[in-house]
Specification:
The complex is a heterodimer of chains A (about 450) and B (about 425). Chain A is α/β, with parallel strands linked by helices and about 450 residues long. Chain A has helices at about 5-10, 10-20, 50-60, 95-100, 125-145, 165-175, 215-230, 240-250, 265-280, 300-325, 340, 350-370, 395-400, 410-425; strands at about 45, 65, 75-80, 105-115, 150-155, 185-190, 210, 230-235, 255-260, 285, 330-335, 375-380, 435. Chain A folds into two domains: about 30-190, Rossmann fold; about 210-435, NAD(P)-binding Rossmann-like Domain (Rossmann fold). Chain A is globular and about 60 Å long. The mean pLDDT of chain A is about 95. The longest helix of chain B is centred in the middle third of the chain and has 20 residues, at about 195-215. Classes of the chains: A alpha/beta (about 450), B alpha+beta (about 425).
Chain lengths: ~450, ~425
């Protein structure tokens, strides 16, 4: 499961050998640890927006060392490009070049985060060209970064400014180690909904969360991460996976619910369990999923239908039940996949289900917002799991090293971090979105 | 504090839920698992189901019929290896196949008396990982050797060694006082009550069909946690037919010749498995947001003289039920479910026949009228030991959890449990729906 190459080029004698030979050297990513600094150095805040002072104050409030101009030779931890007011392509020049000038000082695991506005078809062509252009430029910048640094952006909707709770929360998520494997992505904040946590280390304190498919892999990592962030977790998996599920439940001090989510009453069983045993239901993570790969020419109905039934039909059915129950503020996060974006040979069934998930969250956003909640998806790229460990070594090496800017596969934890963020109240202004956790893979870029 | 009666208030002991691992036929899927492995798994599954991680439970009680001498503190060792708080006390109970019932019943009593707020009762058995003892000759020699001080005394002790000492002693299901196996004992009873081969095969078939149907409707989703890659009882034959069962040759009571009726199909096979049941006071359940499936109302033990042939080895529950009904002012027909442990189909049918028999009820039970017949559609409705298997000490926990859930689903009524045991003993119990 572990990426041996990543270990070899980062330690001991083989590290020097790799350097001498000029081999590609993926970095060990900076991942979140409670109590660790938010960023590995001072933050350089660029851009002339009227919101600059407010953003600066917020960053100072987090204990960060904020600089408005590049100074000295020392390392910097992050560059924030506050570009919500740019309106012509020419205006991109100054801040982008200033960022470029500071890039050599960016520490390993550093961050570039842009804050800009949504490019709309209804705006003036020059304005939309500017906003679209910035995104293209930032994605390219992401591909130039080394040392596990990433470039991502927060995109503000029409009636939202940079100090909206979810905009602030998204900036913090993208600066922190929680977004280690998120690269080249944009988080869209469409409303001023959302509430920042009293304690950023326990953003899910007091929440009751249900995670399906939690017996192993990404699901088990999600359960552990939600627990770490303060939630009470109900772990769900098929009865046949009950022994592994019990172990996960006992690790996160939660309750195990053995349930086949394709049952027509699955949603009701989940609600009953959560309410009876934990008093409420705040978060549902639709993680359960299966693959039954086969070229379409060789595909049989059993393979096709089981993937559709587990990966998308069950979620649609459960969501109807959740909506009907009118659970206040219920936040859902569903697992999509980059296969659903780029397509993947042998996965016509799986891609139908996973692209389906992205369609589902788009079309369900309004309904969940009506009861104060929301629904989003996370699309993982190549993640190191028991499942992907079975991929032939050549294919696996291409997927993990050549495709992503970060030159490595992600960990289940990286997916879990994105889910924990989207499940939190702080992400209340983010709805109907799909966030990729793919290390900026070329697949589906 | 003043003007209180001498009798302390008796509170309810409620069954919160249960967990077992699937039962597996002997020397099969669990061949390499120990009693400790299996009961710890059952315990951890229960902890996971009810979110008891790190909690101190009042007591964990249970045991195993076949036990290694090293497992003198089996339950406590299981607790220490589980996710429960390590300051949870635990003790071993041993009453042959009624071990689980005795453990659970005694915990219920302690809860009713206010001595405990919560308890976990159950049991475990393996006939695959059974203890094998050295021969008596070798044991005597080794003990003498350990007592010997001088070299000559040691040599003298060792000189007593004989090659025959190496033959191991494996445990059997034979009764020490009669030398008859349990099946051969039951064969006598089965014949005495004129139980036909067909009736036994029909009961066995119903057990398999009922257990399969219960799995089908997800009944066991919150009663079983898989273990060692097994997620369903391996003895279950949902596709069995009366013809298949009818084709099997008798294996017990062969001395009866053509009158032998007990086959491998209508007798339980040797099985490995473990079960655990969580009980508590109403306050404990409420404070922890835990379900209350049923009240543990009462239980009763009985024993019969099978040694001198006065009664069949496995008929004690017939006596225990009569006493328990009287104490609770109930008739045999006042139940919505009957869980009568299927050690052998003949055991269940002999017991039912005895309750219907005027002479037996008058002479043996001392009743004016027979206890009467039961509605057979209420008997073992989610299958019993003939289909699930019977890891001796684990059967009580299976029965209590299953019946409690059935009663809770129905929402009213009561259920009767009857378990026979080696040594001519038996334990029966009453549960009441919540």
């Amino acid at each position: 499961m572990a990426d041996k190459y990543l270990e070899l080029v980062n330690s001991g004698f083989t590290k020097n050998l790799a350097k001498t030979l000029g081999l590609p050297r993926p970095s060990i990513l900076r991942r979140y640890e409670p109590g660790a600094p938010l960023v590995p150095g001072p933050v350089l805040l660029l851009g002339g927006s009227p919101q600059a002072q407010n953003i600066s104050d917020t960053l100072l409030g987090w204990g960060l060392d904020v600089r408005r101009h590049a100074v000295g030779e020392g390392k910097i931890g992050a560059i924030i490009l506050l570009l919500d007011e740019v309106s012509t392509p020419g205006e991109l020049s100054e801040p982008m070049l200033a960022a470029g000038h500071a890039l050599r000082q960016l520490a390993p695991g550093g961050r570039v985060v842009s804050i800009s506005r949504k490019a709309l078809a209804t705006d003036a062509p020059a304005l939309t060209a500017t906003r679209s252009g910035l995104q293209g430029s930032l994605r390219s910048l992401g591909r130039e970064l080394r040392g596990g640094a990433t470039a991502n952006g927060v995109v503000l909707g029409e009636r939202v400014d940079a100090t909206a709770p979810s905009a602030i929360a998204a900036v913090r998520f993208l600066l922190s180690g929680r977004s280690a494997y998120v690269d080249g992505q944009f988080l869209e904040v469409d409303t001023t909904d959302g509430e920042l946590p009293a304690n950023f280390e326990k953003p899910l304190a007091g929440k009751v969360a249900v995670v399906t498919g939690a017996a192993r892999g990404i699901g088990a990592a999600i359960a552990a991460t939600l627990f770490r962030d303060g939630a009470t977790v109900v772990v769900v998996d098929v009865p046949a996976a009950g022994d592994a599920l019990a172990k996960v439940a006992n690790q996160v001090a939660g309750t195990a619910l053995q349930l086949d989510i394709t049952r027509v009453d699955a949603g009701a069983v989940i609600i009953d369990h959560a309410l009876a045993r934990h008093g409420k239901l705040d978060i549902v993570v639709h993680n359960a999923g299966i693959t039954r790969d086969k070229l379409l020419a060789n595909m049989d109905a059993a393979r096709w239908d089981s993937v559709i039934a587990v990966n998308i039909e069950s979620q649609l059915r459960m969501n109807e039940t959740f909506l009907g129950a009118e659970l206040p503020g219920l936040r859902l996060v569903s697992l999509a996949s980059t296969s659903g974006i780029a397509g993947n040979r042998g996965q016509t069934n799986y891609a139908a289900s996973k692209a389906g998930v992205m369609g589902m969250v788009t079309a369900s956003a309004q309904a969940f917002a009506a009861s104060g909640g929301g629904i989003n998806a996370v699309a993982p790229g190549f993640i190191e799991t028991e499942m992907t460990a079975k991929i032939p070594v050549a294919t696996r090496t291409v997927a993990r090293m050549l495709m992503p800017s970060l030159m490595q596969g992600g960990l289940p934890l990286d997916v879990a971090e994105a889910i924990a963020f989207l499940a939190s109240d702080a992400a209340g202004g983010i709805n109907g979105q799909t966030l990729r956790v793919c290390g900026q893979s070329l697949v589906g870029a | 504090m003043s003007a209180q009666s001498d009798t302390p208030a008796i509170r309810q002991a409620v069954i919160i839920g249960g967990n077992r691992i699937p039962f597996a036929r002997s020397n099969g899927a669990y061949a390499k698992a120990s009693n400790q492995d299996m009961f710890t798994a059952a315990l951890d599954g229960l902890v996971a189901r009810f979110g008891l991680q790190g909690q101190r439970i009042g007591a964990v009680a249970g045991g195993a019929v076949l036990k290694h001498s090293k497992d003198f503190n089996l339950m406590r060792e299981c607790v220490l290896g589980s996710s429960l708080a390590s300051d949870t006390p635990a003790y071993d109970v041993q009453m042959a196949c009624a071990t689980g019932m005795e453990a659970i019943g005694s915990l219920a009593n302690k809860i009713k008396l206010g001595q405990l707020d919560s308890g976990i009762g159950g049991g475990v058995d393996t006939t695959s990982d059974a203890p094998i003892a050295v021969s008596e000759g070798l044991r005597s020699m080794l003990l003498e050797l350990s007592r010997a001080r001088s070299t000559s005394a040691k040599l003298k002790a060792m000189s007593k060694f004989r090659p025959s000492f190496l033959a191991p002693n494996a445990p059997g299901t034979g009764e020490p006082r009669t030398g008859l196996s349990m099946g051969d004992h039951q064969a006598l009873t089965t014949k005495a009550w004129n139980i036909t081969r067909e009736a036994q095969d029909e009961l066995a078939l119903a057990s398999h069909k009922n257990l399969a149907a219960a799995y089908e409707r997800h009944f066991f989703d919150d009663l079983i946690t898989p273990f060692a890659g097994v997620s369903k009882d391996t003895n279950l034959r949902g596709d069995s037919t009366i013809e298949k069962l009818g084709s099997l040759k008798p294996v017990f009571g062969k001395s009866l010749g053509d009158a032998a009726t007990m086959t491998a199909g209508n007798s339980t096979p040797l099985t490995d498995g473990a079960s655990a049941v969580l009980l508590g006071s109403e306050a404990f359940a409420r404070e922890n947001d835990l379900p209350m499936l049923a009240n543990f109302v009462d239980f009763e033990a009985a024993a019969v003289d099978f040694v001198h042939g006065a009664e069949g080895l496995l008929m004690a529950p017939a006596y225990a039920v009569a006493r328990m009904l009287k104490r609770n002012n109930l008739t045999l027909q006042d139940f919505d479910f009957y869980e009568i442990h299927e050690a052998f189909a003949g055991t269940v049918l002999s017991t039912l026949a005895a309750w219907e028999d005027e002479e037996f009820c008058k002479n043996k039970l001392g009743l004016d009228a027979p206890l009467g017949a039961i509605d057979r559609s209420k008997l073992n409705v989610t299958g019993s030991s003939l289909a699930a298997g019977h890891p001796f000490a684990a059967t009580g926990g299976r029965l209590v959890a299953t019946l409690a859930k059935m009663l809770h689903e129905k929402g009213s009524g009561r259920g009767l449990i009857s378990v026979c045991a080696a040594g001519g003993q038996g334990v029966v119990a009453i549960l009441e729906a919540r």
